[in-house]
Specification:
Length: 478
């Protein structure tokens, strides 16, 4: 089921909200069970064949976590339990996500003709990483003993289940346990509705609106210089508003239940360096890779060379996490190289004169955006060869068409660029503060309330009217 669909907005969400708050009058546990069952129903609509896999994953990880938390195991037994738990998660992820990719490469190397066709369970990367973090923290002694219904909801919670963010047990389960979240809060419901409306508008009007221009670069056999750049930029902005829209909608839906999700998207194209870009783009994935891969590898504790090697390993695996294709490996390798260059530059030039600070920030933002656009070509292309074809066209100004279609595309892309760089993001508009559990304080105080409500109503109307029959979020495939 899609957030940007009439059945979800007009049927599923109102029923789940009503049941959640209705049960909350009588019990603190019943709403948790209701929401977990509703989340499973949400997942089952369109993915029913993988519900059993999701339930087995929850049971396996909860049982392993219980051994690490409550059982009196020796150090070697605890290490064995952790190894079995993490290896089991990665094995399942590897079979469903990477078996076909591995088989294709084996066939290419050996000239064999093995065939593996396995459907990819939606959301498997997200709920696998969520539970791996839980197991590692349980091994470290950083996890309390959680009740099974709360853990099951933590994993299946439908606003995040399909395309993130990657949740952390310390942040989410205490919220699920609080009695206050089981009673409707008119302010949070209002703020959630406004944030949901903004996200819906971003998805249905902005992301889906620019999607046809992507074909200029990625569906043409020989794009010209201007077509390649316009198509690459169109995809850059499509992905931005698609992912930003989903993140807003997830936060908005969750707020209606009184639950604050972590911010996962914070105007990444305003970053002045690649390091800053990764602090703004898919923030929960960045934190996971840092805490559970980069730092355990050694991080920056063993000299510059090993730091750069650890960065490359982390980003290569981060690229492969997005998809089983060499294009994603290339995308991860590029970002790994970018981060190494960024850290090397910071080491060589620690401080700039104050007179150069502003021009340096402008240059840094331009170079960062250019590097990101180049990497997105691999992210979007169907093959490495196709990506190189597009990049070759982007580097060859000898062939320029610049007809009526290209001029119209340029105007539209300029409008999108202005929105990305000049407009405030949703967190800024709504004052969303995940850490302090605050949102919409300006709205609560009455300042700008009528104007914001009218604007939100208009945005919601346009967002609903822009809903297409079936328009998935790009991150659903990961």
């Amino acid at each position: 089921m899609l957030f940007n669909s009439y059945p979800f907005i007009l049927l599923f969400l109102p029923i789940v909200l009503a049941g959640y708050f209705g049960l909350g009058r009588r019990s603190n546990l019943a709403p948790v069970i209701w929401l977990a069952l509703a989340s499973l129903a949400f997942y089952a609509i369109g993915n029913w064949q993988f519900v059993a896999l999701l339930l087995l994953s929850i049971a396996f990880n909860y049982g392993t976590g219980h051994l690490l938390i409550a059982a009196k195991l020796g150090p070697s037994q605890r290490r064995a339990a952790l190894t079995i738990g993490v290896a089991g998660d990665l094995l399942v992820l590897g079979i469903f996500k990477y078996a076909g990719f591995a088989t294709e490469n084996i066939n290419a190397l050996l000239g064999s003709h093995f065939a593996v066709h396995i459907l990819l369970p939606v959301g498997i990367s997200f709920y696998t990483f969520t539970q791996i973090a839980f197991l590692v923290d349980a091994y470290r002694g950083q996890v309390a003993a959680y009740a099974l219904p709360h853990y099951a909801l933590f994993v299946t919670y439908f606003p995040h289940l399909i395309a993130g963010p990657i949740l952390h047990h310390k942040d989410m389960i205490p919220q699920f346990e609080r009695k206050e979240t089981k009673h409707p809060d008119a302010h949070l419901i209002l703020c959630g509705t406004i944030i949901f409306a903004i996200g819906l508008f971003k998805k249905t009007c902005l992301a889906d609106g620019i999607q046809p221009l992507v074909a200029l670069a990625f569906e043409a056999r020989s794009p010209s210089f201007d077509q390649a750049w316009l198509g690459a930029l169109a995809y850059t902005f499509q992905l931005y508003f698609d992912f930003s829209g989903y993140s807003d909608m997830a936060i908005g839906i969750s707020l209606m239940f009184g639950i604050f999700l972590p911010v996962n998207f914070n105007s990444p194209y305003k970053a002045v360096s690649i390091v800053e870009f990764w602090r703004r783009w898919h923030m929960t994935l960045s934190q996971f890779l840092r805490d559970y891969l980069y730092i355990p590898l050694g991080g920056n504790r063993h000299g510059r060379l090993l730091r750069y090697i650890n960065l490359m390993i982390t980003m290569l695996l981060g690229g492969l996490w997005h998809g089983a294709a060499w294009t994603f490996v290339a995308w991860g390798a590029l970002h790994g190289a970018y981060l190494c260059v960024n850290h090397a530059f910071n080491a060589m030039v620690p401080n700039l004169p104050s007179a150069l600070a502003r021009p340096a920030r402008f240059l840094g933002a331009a170079l960062t955006f250019l590097a990101v656009v180049v990497a997105w070509v691999f992210f979007r292309a169907v093959s490495v060869d196709w990506a190189l074809r597009v990049l070759h066209a982007m580097a060859d100004p000898s062939e320029i068409v610049f007809g009526r279609e290209e001029i119209a595309a340029l105007v539209l892309i300029a409008i999108y660029a202005a929105l990305v760089w000049l407009a405030p993001n949703t967190q800024g508009i709504m004052g969303y503060d995940h850490g302090n559990r605050r949102v919409g304080e300006t709205l609560r105080a009455g300042r700008m309330r009528p104007l914001l409500l009218y604007a939100a109503s208009l945005v919601l109307a346009f967002g609903i009217l822009g809903i297409q029959s079936h328009s998935e979020f790009i991150y659903f495939r990961f």
